[in-house]
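Thread title: Can someone regenerate the structure for this chain?

I was given the following input by a collaborator and told the matching C-alpha cells would be attached. They weren't. Posting the sequence so someone can regenerate them.
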Amino acid sequence: MNEANEFYTLDQVANKLFISTGTARNRLTNKSPMPPSFRVGRRRLFPIGEFNKWLLTIRGEEVRE
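Best answer:
Regenerated them for you:
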C-alpha cells in the first residue's frame, strides 16, 4: 500500500510529535497547529502523506523563526 491509503491514529500522531494523547486532543479542540485529519465514527485518522507534508512545513517554519 502507498501512503495515500494509510493512516495514523491520534495515539500514533501524538507519539510521533512527542506529546501526550491528551495534549493532541486539546490542540485539536483549541484549533492549535495539528496535521490534517478527519473523523470516522469516534476515531480520528491522519493520512500519513498529509502528516509528512505538514511536518515538513512546520519544521521549515521553526527554522525560519
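Strands lie at 7-9, 38-40, 43-47.
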